[in-house]
Amino acid sequence: MVATQKSLFQTPKIPLNTSKTALNPSSDPPPTPKVGIYVRVSTEEQAKEGISIDAQIDRCQAYCKARGWQVFKIYTDAGYSAGTLSRPALKDLLEDARTKQLNILLVYKIDRFSRKLQDLISALEHLKAQNINFTSVTEQIDTTTAMGEAFFQIIGVFAQLERGMVKERVELAFDKKISTGELLNRAPLGYTYNDQRKLVINSTEAVIVKEIFQMAATGISYKDICAQFRLPTSTYYEIIKNPTYIGKIQYRNKLYQGTHKPIIDESLFFQINNK
């Protein structure tokens, strides 16, 4: 009887070889990051600064080894300036980024990647859209960290500011052209630009434009007019609806007085378009 009661209070034995994986079989180790190393040098830079391609590669590979990162590919642009993004190895890198072949872009120094803020912003936004982190060996730029993520946010603010400033500059340029009566687009049939970029009448083409308007005013169908002058239908409508022919300029759905001479009388123009 005593033996039976003792057995009721015995503690079950737990196997000593129970592993962490067995306790939580769903927890897998995170995948090893795949790194694209980008190195660049121009001939002049290499002579002056001594930052050779091999030196950059060695430092970047050592950085990856220290962090346990896997080097996916080394992209090398030797003899190319950082003043443009039109570099063969950089294009390959951005294409591999687009197809998600890597997780991290690593450079020895940020100016190896680009020295123009606008180009840098554009490239970093492209990488961000592909969920690719950007890291520099010699600078405190590492978007795998919280501080690095903040860096990307700051870059995004500057990108938005740059886009806004570009838009303002374009609108200002357009407004200035409109105020002086300049055409914003290519010269339409019947006109050409002179050496001062002023719109002047092309007498030979102007005859054709006048005939098109006169035929349309008399009720001749657009199909017959297009056939006679071998015009696509879209071109025909571009001509008869274009206020440039009455000396006006259209901008943001408003008409402004131009500085060029008209080819068509206003009454004829509005007679056709009111139909």
From TrEMBL:
Task: Report which superkingdom the organism of origin falls in.
Answer: Bacteria
A GO biological process of this protein is: DNA integration
Q: Which Gene3D superfamilies match?
A: Putative Large Serine Recombinase, Chain B, Domain 2 (3.90.1750.20), Resolvase, N-terminal catalytic domain (3.40.50.1390)
Sorted alphabetically, which keywords does the UniProt record give?
A: DNA integration, DNA recombination, DNA-binding
UniProt name for this protein:
Resolvase/invertase-type recombinase catalytic domain-containing protein
Q: Which InterPro entries match?
A: DNA_bind_recomb_sf, DNA_bind_recombinase_dom, Recombinase_CS, Resolv_N, Resolvase-like_N_sf, SSR_resolvase
| Domain Resolvase/invertase-type recombinase catalytic: from-to ranges | 34-181
Q: Name one Pfam family in it.
A: Recombinase
GO terms assigned for molecular function: DNA binding; DNA strand exchange activity
Identify the catalytic residues. S42 (o-(5'-phospho-dna)-serine intermediate)
The organism named in the record is Candidatus Nomurabacteria bacterium RIFCSPHIGHO2_01_FULL_39_10
What are the Recombinase domain coordinates in residue numbering?
A: 188-275
